[in-house]
Specification:
Beta-Lactamase, 16 strands, Sensor-like_sf, transmembrane helix, Rev_trsase/Diguanyl_cyclase, cell membrane, EC 2.7.7.65
Length: 503
């Protein structure tokens, strides 16, 4: 997972860096392009103002000659094709010459905002957009006509149509992108002078982050959202002489479109290496984790007898797993010793060290599972209560321990010795026949009878013997028969062995 997350983060980081790089480059390209367009537009406006200034000098010298004035307007109109129309007026705004003639404006007095502004300012100027007498949305670039005596005679002006074909369209209309990018030109009052959508020309744009940024800086770039809600990357610059704002915009989606193909190539080259890396990481992780997993599984099986052997076989090829394995083996050894001790204590009689009833049950179950025949001897001390009453319980306990020693001494190594009550004992003899069990019981009886205990009168025991094999029902029944034989020995006078003949 760590390797996968690292690879995914690397891929995402690469994507983010490339994305931001494309955006930054596009913003800078748009800023540079807008600045170049602003410089070209500035140069164009100055060139037109120079043409008008030169024509103004000619008009001042021949202001009373209509033919020369008309010829000069025609020259300005058709020689450079910079203007859609050219007009010369007197100081009161009356048209003295105009080109083209199709406008039929000769003799009329201009009262349009651009004309009135030119007559009032009496200096070279570029007007705000207005509706001309021919009902066209235009701007007028004008220069005053002043004679040699410094007298103001009128002005000469060239108009540029904003919604029709003009030099402004040719200058700004050819944009080097064909992906939804476009250029817009606004005057210093946010009125659109040029836009790919001709219907928006003349519209006053509401204050927006982009227009506010243009007001604050001569040029720059900005990420914006247009009126259609589309994310755009904009660059802007200002034309110094006119205050026009040139804005170049490109859709963010178009800018980032190449990134999809680029990241696909990165992913295509990265995937094989990533798969190999992840496989290697998985293999090494498995190699590292396997000893720990096997040790953890063994930790859940610590009660099994062969768990130590299984742990020793676990490969531990690095320091940490070796130390864990060593600690686990030590812990299991201590635990098994503790369990063995507890098991021994729960299955044995603390006074005599012989099996108790629980130990008897477990050993009897083992004998039965092995399908092994056995003989059973039950015995108890004759008149044991009188011993306790006469000599006290401590002496009675000493008698019981002495009897236990005699039982051990007379039993075989494979026999199972149990203390099942206060003075009651049981001996299981696996594999023994009835006659052999009777002989052992008789020998034990005689040894106890001859036993000398300091300060205590001689003691005797009574014994019952029974036999069991698989054809004789449940093994508990043979124990019951041995008890019955013991009771019979008691009835017959004690200190004797009685063999059960029942099957």
């Amino acid at each position: 997972m760590s390797a996968f997350v690292t690879l995914a983060n690397s891929f995402y980081a690469s994507y983010s860096v490339q994305r931001q790089l494309l955006i930054d480059n596009t913003l800078e390209e748009n800023r540079v392009y807008a600045t170049k367009l602003a410089a070209s537009t500035e140069q164009f406006l100055k060139s037109m103002q120079k043409q008008l200034a030169y024509s103004g000098v000619i008009a001042a010298s021949h202001f009373d000659d209509p033919k020369i004035l008309q010829a000069e307007t025609a020259r300005l109109k058709y020689q450079t094709d910079s203007f859609n129309s050219v007009v010369i007026t007197n100081a009161k705004g009356k048209i003295l010459a105009t080109s083209p003639d199709s406008l039929q404006l000769m003799g009329q007095t201009l009262n349009t905002p651009g004309a009135l502004e030119a007559l009032k300012q009496r200096r070279p100027m570029i007007s705000k957009p207005y509706i001309s007498l021919a009902k066209n949305l235009v701007i007028i670039i004008s220069t005053p006509i002043i004679n040699a005596q410094g007298e103001y005679l009128g002005y000469i002006g060239g108009t540029i149509y904003l919604r029709q074909k003009s030099i402004l369209n040719e200058l700004l209309g050819e944009h080097y992108y064909r992906d939804g990018s476009y250029i817009a030109v606004l005057d210093n009052e946010r009125r659109i002078l040029y836009h790919p959508d001709a219907n928006r020309i003349g519209e006053v744009v509401k204050p927006r982050p982009l227009t506010d940024a243009v007001k604050r800086n001569a040029n720059g770039s900005l990420m914006v959202t247009n009126l259609a809600g589309q994310a755009m990357l904009a660059g802007f610059a200002v034309v110094p002489s006119s205050g026009w704002e040139i804005v170049t915009q490109r859709p963010t989606d178009s800018t980032l479109k190449p990134l999809e193909g680029l990241m696909y190539k990165v992913l295509r080259h990265l995937t094989p290496l990533a798969l190999v890396t992840l496989l290697a990481v998985w293999l090494f992780s498995r190699l590292i984790a396997r000893p720990l997993w096997l040790l953890a599984r063994s930790a859940n099986e610590m009660d099994k007898p062969d768990v130590s052997t299984n742990i020793r076989e676990i490969p531990s090829w690095y320091f940490e797993s070796t130390q864990l394995k060593r600690a686990l083996l030590i812990g299991i050894s201590l635990l098994q010793k503790k369990i063995g001790k507890l098991k021994f204590e729960t299955q044995t009689d603390p006074m005599t060290g012989l099996f108790n009833r629980r130990g008897l049950a477990m050993t009897l179950e083992t004998v039965v599972q092995l399908r092994q025949q056995f003989a059973a001897i039950t015995l108890d001390i004759d008149h044991f209560k009188s011993i306790n009453d006469s000599y006290g319980h401590d002496t009675g306990d000493q008698v019981i321990r002495s009897l236990a020693e005699q039982i051990r001494h007379n039993a075989r190594e494979s026999d199972i010795l149990c203390r099942v009550g206060g003075e009651e004992f049981l001996v299981l003899l696996p594999g023994a026949q009835l006659a052999e069990a009777e002989m052992i019981a008789e020998r034990l009886r005689k040894n106890v009878e001859n036993l000398v205990l300091p300060g205590i009168r001689p003691i005797t025991i009574s014994l019952g013997v029974a036999y069991w094999n698989q054809q004789q029902g449940k093994p508990e029944e043979s124990l019951k028969r041995a008890d019955e034989a013991l009771y019979q020995a008691k009835k017959e006078g004690r200190n004797r062995v009685v063999v059960s003949q029942k099957h």
